[in-house]
Write a structure and sequence with these properties.
436 residues, alpha+beta, Adenine-n6-DNA-methyltransferase TaqI, Chain A, domain 2, 2 domains, 4-stranded antiparallel beta sheet, 10 helices, 21% strand, elongated
Length: 436
């Protein structure tokens, strides 16, 4: 699992089968399966429960489990659960550590790994099995050409890994566990800010900036573009307007691929390849560009900086703002805002409207919001100054989420780097002494 040519002093190089035992989970009949707890039901972990951490949501309960099955597939403290079979080969081998005793069993598509003997630490075994070299070996040896992919357990058992003494195993596991704890705390902050943001968005887009409005008026005739259900009144200074009365709608187009002169020019061309950038406040660069010739010989449009871009196929609901003149594919609806509509307000509004986009999507295979819908959209229009206030509040939360996400990415990179040197002995640690 390492490029090292020598074994660190005091360590051993051994096959995984010598340091742990594997067992497969249980199967059951559909008639035994329950979604809610029953007096005879035993909770069972399945593939969806194996994530970065053990997820205890979406459990199922199985009636009539025998004692032999319970003995075979009991989830014990210190064991590692691996995905043994999955349609996605990159999911095969994913694993999670069980630190505490659980009154659960695990299903047949999972594999349990437990340390053999007292000289193997359970969490260190998990760190070995989840390390990039071991995961790569698992992925490279998956069995099955179509449909379900399966772990090659014999190949995994034969894989040779470096194993330090028990006390050093514990110290390495403790260091990496502290990294996971820091990553988890950062994720908790991100999740909480998302919760606050969702609640605040509903308030801002239906009632306005808190404390700003004392009077309201009935809301009538709202058909397309709803930001909330059962909304009957809006602030008195707001208006319900057709979006095309305050913004110009433009679509996009793809120049002919058969003419190379139409491509790799100076005009940024937003496509579904730029999906990740649609979560940013602005998009300035694109994966593909087109030429002036391609623009002139197609239905593509050169749109001004500040245009609001909305993905209407595949990644429906993602939205951002053009940082400069650009064009798009036909997968996007684009709005050039007039003097009464702030583009940052519109982008945030679109991002909030996910339930409405789901309601308006059509198509059995590729879900799409068709262009006629965008001509019929109605939006709630506060005064321009309040639109900017709303956008400022939400962008402040977006900035916090982005900052915490960057911090988490740095922690993940540091953890990966530490795993690389700690699990190979390139960086040695001083073990904590055993208590007397």
């Amino acid at each position: 699992m390492s490029a090292r040519t020598t074994t660190p002093h005091g360590w051993s190089l051994t096959a995984i089968k010598n340091i742990c035992t594997f067992s497969r989970g249980i199967s059951w009949k559909k008639s035994q399966e329950r979604r809610d707890p029953t007096p005879d039901g035993t909770p069972v972990l399945r593939i969806p429960n194996v994530q970065d951490t053990l997820r205890l949501t979406d459990l199922i309960y199985v009636d009539g489990v025998t004692q032999d099955q319970k003995k075979k597939a009991q989830v014990r403290a210190g064991c590692t659960l691996l995905v043994g079979s999955n349609g996605n080969p990159k999911r095969v081998g994913n694993c999670v550590y069980v630190a505490e005793p659980r009154n659960f069993l695990f299903a047949s598509f999972l594999i349990g790994a437990r340390p053999s003997g007292r000289q193997m630490h359970g969490e260190f075994l998990y760190r070995l099995l989840s390390s990039r070299p071991v995961q790569n070996d698992i992925w490279n040896s998956v069995q099955g050409s179509t449909g379900l992919r399966n772990i090659d357990l014999n190949a995994l058992k034969s894989l040779r890994v470096l194993v330090p003494p028990l006390l050093e195993q514990r110290k390495i596991a403790l260091i990496l566990s502290s990294m996971d704890e820091a990553i988890g705390k950062t994720q908790a902050i991100i999740d909480q800010v998302h919760v606050v943001r969702r609640g605040l968005m509903r308030t801002l887009f239906t009632q306005g900036v808190p404390g700003k409005h004392r009077r309201s008026k009935p809301l009538l005739g709202w058909r397309f573009g709803r930001v909330a259900s059962n909304l009957e009144r809006i602030p008195e200074s707001w208006a319900l307007v057709p979006i095309v009365s305050v913004a110009k709608l433009e679509s996009g187009h793809t120049p002919s691929r058969r003419n190379p002169e139409y491509w790799n020019g100076s005009i940024p061309w937003i496509s579904l390849h730029d999906t990740a950038s649609l979560d940013e406040p602005e998009i300035a660069e694109t994966k593909h560009t087109i030429s002036d010739l391609g623009l002139r010989n197609s239905s593509a449009r050169l749109l001004p900086g500040g245009t609001v871009v909305f993905s209407r196929t595949a990644t429906v609901g993602k939205s951002t703002i053009m940082a400069r003149e650009m064009s798009t594919t036909q997968d996007f609806a684009n709005y050039i805002c007039g003097p009464r509509l702030h583009n940052r307000y519109l982008m945030q509004l679109f991002r909030h409207m996910q339930p409405e986009w789901r309601r308006l999507m059509a198509g059995s295979t590729h879900k799409t919001v068709y262009m006629p819908i965008f001509r019929q959209l109605q939006i709630l229009l506060p005064p321009l100054s309040e639109q900017e206030e709303i956008a400022n509040v939400l962008e402040c939360l977006d900035d916090r989420i982005a900052s915490e996400t960057r911090q988490q990415a740095q922690l993940r990179e540091l953890k990966a780097a530490l795993m690389s040197v700690l699990l190979t002995g390139e960086l040695r640690v001083t073990p904590n002494p055993e208590p007397e």
